[in-house]
């Protein structure tokens, strides 16, 4: 048995880190998937995601649901949290934020499948929901519904 751990290369977990000021500055870390021989789903839910309107600088809020079926890599959750919070200072439209997050995860993890649902709260009276998926999920993997109701306003 080797003395080397699959976690040896991580730089954020277990220590104090500085919040990245932009998504470009943020580092997404990955670790080898110790269960890579089995297809299974992983879900991250970020119900308090924030970014900025690129024109007004006003905050935008979303509930993000990220599902993926890992291949050889898992995302390290603290680096994902720091990556998502780096959008607090980032000005971009809802569509750009949602798809950029999904694409960055796909580039980093090379998952067998990934889906992101961005459920954005209304501004100007119109909610914008953004959905991204890499294709069909692997057969036989249980992937629950996202569980986020469509916006219903007060009624």
Taking the sheet with the most strands, its summary is:
4 strands, antiparallel
Reading side by side through the largest sheet, how are the strands ordered?
A: 2-3-5-6
What fraction of residues sit in β-strands? 25-35%
Can you write the helix and strand succession as a string? EEEEHHEE
Rg over CA atoms: 17 Å
Give the oligomeric state of the chains in this entry, treating copies of one chain as homo and distinct chains as hetero: single chain
Helix/strand-derived class?
alpha+beta
What does this structure look like?
Belongs to the GTP cyclohydrolase I family. QueF type 1 subfamily. It catalyses: 7-aminomethyl-7-carbaguanine + 2 NADP(+) = 7-cyano-7-carbaguanine + 2 NADPH + 3 H(+). Pathway: tRNA modification; tRNA-queuosine biosynthesis. Its EC number is 1.7.1.13. Keywords: Cytoplasm, NADP, Oxidoreductase, Queuosine biosynthesis. The chain has helices spanning 77-85, 94-109, and strands spanning 30-32, 42-52, 59-69, 73-75, 113-120, 129-133. A 4-stranded antiparallel beta sheet has the order 2-3-5-6, with helices on one face. A two-stranded antiparallel sheet has the order 1-4. The protein is of the alpha+beta class. The mean pLDDT is 92. Strand 5 and strand 6 (129-133) form a beta hairpin. Helices cover 16% and strands 26% of the residues. It is globular.
């Amino acid at each position: 048995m080797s003395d080397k751990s699959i976690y040896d290369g991580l730089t954020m977990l277990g220590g104090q880190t500085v919040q990245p000021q932009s998504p470009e500055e943020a580092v997404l870390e990955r670790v080898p998937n110790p269960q890579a021989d089995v297809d299974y789903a992983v879900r991250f839910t970020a119900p308090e995601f924030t970014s900025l309107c690129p024109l007004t600088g006003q905050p935008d809020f979303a509930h993000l649901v990220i599902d993926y079926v890992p291949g050889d890599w898992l995302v390290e959750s603290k680096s994902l949290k720091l990556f998502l919070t780096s959008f607090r200072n980032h000005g971009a439209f809802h569509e750009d934020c949602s798809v950029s997050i999904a694409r960055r995860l796909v580039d980093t993890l090379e998952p067998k499948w990934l889906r992101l649902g961005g459920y954005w709260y209304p501004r100007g009276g119109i909610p914008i929901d953004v959905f991204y998926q890499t294709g069909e999920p692997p057969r036989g993997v249980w992937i629950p519904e996202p569980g986020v109701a469509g916006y219903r306003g007060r009624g």
